Each structure stands twice: as structure tokens, then as C-alpha cells.
Amino acid sequence: MRGLQFGRYGLSVSHLFFADDSLIFMDADMESCQRFKGLLYLYSAASGQLVNYHKSKVCFGRNVAREARQQLASFMGVREVENHGKYLGLPSFVGRNKKEFLDQIKNKVWAKMKGWKSSMFSMAGKEVLIKAVVQAIPTYTMSCFRLSKKTISSIHRMAARWRVGNGENVRVLEDPWLPRPVTFKIYDKPLLPANMVVADMKLGDGRWDESFINAVFNHEDAKLILSVPSMGWELEDKIMWHYSKNGEYTVKSGYKMASSLVDEQYQSNDKVLVDWLKALWRFKIPPKIKHFVWKLAYNWIPTNVTLAKRGVAVNKKCERCTSHVEETAIHALWECKRSKEFKVVSGLKDEMKRLKGEDVLSFLMRMARQWDKDKFEFFLVLTWNIWNVRNNVIHGGTAPMAGEMVDWCRTYLTEFQGGGAAAMSRVRSENSKWGAPDLGQMKINVDARVKSGGGVSGIGCVVRESGGRSLYASSTVVNREIAPLQLELQAILLGLQVGIQRKIHRFSIESNYLQAIQLIQRKDEGCLDVDCLLDQIRTLLLYDSVDGISFVFREANRVAHVLGNYALTNNPV
């Protein structure tokens, strides 16, 4: 049998095996078919396996006559097809022109995107569309073929949006340009010309025409439009990747998004838990106990009930008591007869009565409200140790005396808070005071505050000389809610403008927003909504009178912080 020849002097391929599928290449003549059928007969006789001709197919080259095709297909006892369809989502044959084949990938991505009604999802749900669907589709294909730059660019544009610069190339109603995953588009489209661009909604000095925007668009769309930075200092419009800090797509950012997938409903109902866990990290207890409580709040500790739900073959009943009750987290830690001994000795038993139907998180949150901080921290340490005792007993160990363990918990917590915690916070405390500038120089501290849900933001700015005396202070109100990064950059820009306009001979800027400072100081360009602000700040930093910008802890930036807060509740000073 002669296989498929690749070029006059190239390799000849007679067969390709894929798991339980096989492709055989041979000449389209009766002699080759007879030899091949003979080989199949020998294989069946030797192995005891039969070939399923009903599932087998044959296809021919363009130069094989119709009569010959029918005769050979009938002799082989198989069905003739034009091609062998797809294998693992890829077509069996791809010719020189791959455009049609690659367009199928792009069309599949687009069909998935427009099929979802993104306006009905929560913020997390909208991100799932990009994370799970769009990025997962071309994975296998890209491992087999090198996609063209045009195809990659098309797929990228579906999951990206415009970074608005001068707005001359971005269509208001059709292009994705708002910071709103996953469509990045206007939801409630007003009656505007289809070719109207973003630049048409700006005034002569580059600022937004707020009266026009508020009159034409609904409240949510108008709020998002006005949140996009727009000033006289304009850049060119550019496509950006929404899901990375610098606006550039990287494999790391794509992988991070894909690996962070969780159930949408679980995410959308998780706000109470997230808020409580933020408070947890501020407790003065060892990090390992914080992690344990974090897992406990999520019901992730491996009790018998949890293990059974994960498919582990275990008995759900508690192994330490004779109550024949399923071992949930609540039972194992607080309601088991063996655990109650520690509650009695600690003096917390009467205060730890669980309400009917109360889950773990609700119980923890109620205890945190019911007790003062010191008692709740001791309760967490005690709970962590009860879990350790449970594990020790189950794996063949013994339980300590209740009084000894409670005393150990108190000593352990006292020693940690007296020594370890102080050592951990020493670096921060040493840098918590404002540092005066050198003699003859000035220091400008800035800070910004965002009032959540209030539609108001504030910027504080203070200029002080080497002796600590304040020479200038301002508290500026911004009458709309702005993203924290953008607002902090505006605060830094304001500080630079104050120093330059007041003709201060030599001054430096301090801010407690590290991300903003890192963006200003980095060398790579990136692509962000705030690029126009970054460009202005970097230009002003080149002035001879500016001695640079640096990060300080919030404790060392207290005056500017207070001024920013003042703007939220009072008139500007």
C-alpha cells in the first residue's frame, strides 16, 4: 500500500492513529482496497476484534471519478462522505487558506457573547462570560495551530474595550468603551446618530459636556461616562485589556481570571461574608488562626459531613460522642459533648447559645457583636484549639484536661499580643510620623476620600515647611463618585499644580496610595483609562522645582486625610 505523499521528495504517510480512531491513506484503486481489506481480515482473525463498517467512512480526492468512488465505497462496505468532519473541535482537513477555518473560531466566540443577556447579570456574572466562555474556546485550537494575528486581534477586541483619549475614533453607541464588563457598551441607547463619536460629547477644553450627557443618557450610563477621565490633555484612542492593571493582555492575567471562577450565585450573595472577613484580618490573633476562621466561615474545614459531600467514603456521624448526630462544623466545635467541656471551663457556655437555624457565619458574626474585642479574640483561639483536639483524638491521640487547655489558650494569646504583634507592627509604627523636609524645602501631602454610594468625593492637600508649619491647605469637593485610583491621581496632580502655581522653590509630594505612585514611576507604557492623568503628572514631575513623589503610611498623612474627609461633609475651605 502506498500512502499520502507530501511533495515529490517528501515523506509518505499511510496511517494516523488517534486513541480509538484511525485515518488510513492509500491510492483510490481496487488493488489497494483489496490489500487493505485483507489486512483488516487478518487483524480481526488474530485479535478477535471486528471492524464496525457502519461507523467507518471514506472520502476521495477531487480527481477520482464518480463511478470509481461508488464502486470502491461499495466494495469496502462503508459510506462515502465529502470529509471526515471535526475531531476534538477541529476540522480533519485544513488547506492552505486557513481564513475560513479560523473565522469559525471567531464566530463561535461572538455567538457565545451576544447570546448572553449581560444586562441581567451581577458584576461577577458578567465577568464569568469573559473568564469562562471566551478564553476557553480557542485553547485546544491554539495548541495545534498558530492563529493569525488578525484572528487573535479579533478575539481580543471582543473581550477588550477602548481606552478613550481624544474620542475621535470611538463610536458612542456601537463601540465598547465604558468601564462596564462584559459588553462595555451603553445599555439604554438614546436616539443619537449611529456614527456619533465620543469627541462630540466634549467641550472645547476637552472636558465632558455634563449637561448634555445627563440630559440624554439614563442615570447609570451618565454616571459611568462622567467617571472616565477627560481633560484638555488628550491622548489617542486605544484598545485596552480591562482585566489587568496596566491595560495590556498577558497570559498571567488570562490564567488568573480563568482560575478564579466560582459559582456566580455564591459570589453575588457573598458580600456579607467578605465584609466580615475584612474585619477578621484586623484582630490581634496569629495568622494561622485567622486562616482557620476564614475556612470555618466558608464551611471548608473537613468535618465528616463536609468530607461526605466531597465524595469521601466516611461516616457522617460524630465519632467522639454517642449522640449519633451528624458531625457538622457547629457540632464538632461547639455542640459535641467533648467540646462543651472546654466551653464550661472557659466561662463562655452560657453566652454561646446558638439560635435555631443559625449557620456558622451568622453565629460568628453575632458573637463578634455580642462580646468585646478581647473576649471574641479569645473565643477564636479557643475554637481553633478545640478543632486541633478533635483531630488529635480522631487520629489516635488523647484530649488534654479542659482547664489546662483553656489556660494555655489565654497564655498563648497574651504572649502573641504582647510580643509577636508588637514586633510585626514595629516597622509601620516607626514610619507613622510625618517627616519634615530639608531646610529651605517644602512638602505637599495629598489624600483623596470616596464616599461610597454618596456620589461625592473629596481631596485634601496641605503644604508644610521644614519646621512643620502649614503654609497652605485645601479641601476640595468632587461632586460625583470616582474610582479611588483616578481620584488619588487627581489629588497628586492637584498637589503638583499647587506647588508650581505658587512658585515654591523646591518641594516634594507624598501620598499614601501606593498603586498610584507605582503607576506614575513605572517605565512601561500600558494602557489605562487614567493615562491622560498619568501623562500630565509625569510632565509636571520634570519641573526643576519638583523633588519627586514618594509613598507614606496613612498615619504619616493624617492631615491630608482629615482634609479629604472634611470635604465629604462640609463646604470646601
Automatic annotation (TrEMBL):
All residue ranges annotated as the RNase H type-1 domain in the record: 445-566
PANTHER family in UniProt: REVERSE TRANSCRIPTASE DOMAIN-CONTAINING PROTEIN, REVERSE TRANSCRIPTASE ZINC-BINDING DOMAIN-CONTAINING PROTEIN-RELATED-RELATED
Taxonomic source organism: Cannabis sativa
Protein name, per record: Reverse transcriptase
Pfam families xref list: RVT_3, zf-RVT
Alphabetized InterPro entries for the sequence: RNase_H-like_dom_plant, RNaseH-like_sf, RNaseH_domain, RNaseH_sf, RVT-Znf
Positions of the Reverse transcriptase zinc-binding domain: 249-341
GO MF entry, a single one: RNA-DNA hybrid ribonuclease activity
